[in-house]
Amino acid sequence: MAAAVGDDIALISDLRGVFLESANHHVDLLGRARCDANWQLAAWRLKGLAASFGVEGLMALAEEAATSAPGDPKIVRRIKAALATFELDSQ
Fold this sequence. Notes:
Strand content: under 5%
Number of strands: 0
Radius of gyration: 13 Å
Largest sheet: none
Helix content: over 70%
Number of domains: 1
Distance between the termini: 16 Å
Low-confidence stretches: none
Shape: elongated
């Protein structure tokens, strides 16, 4: 991300905040999805968001979610844990 925005700490902080807000929204959608289409759409959007920010671990988890059963609580918990770790690392 620094290559795209330089050393602007405020901008980097704002972008991380936007990323986390959007990622948490998609995780919420995953948690509420009960059909394949909604589940996969939320997983793919999360994967795309993670790719945009270069968060490879989250990309892999979102890919795993896309092939999991809708509403799988294990993958949702793992994604939430990854986001919590990302949030702690960015403070």
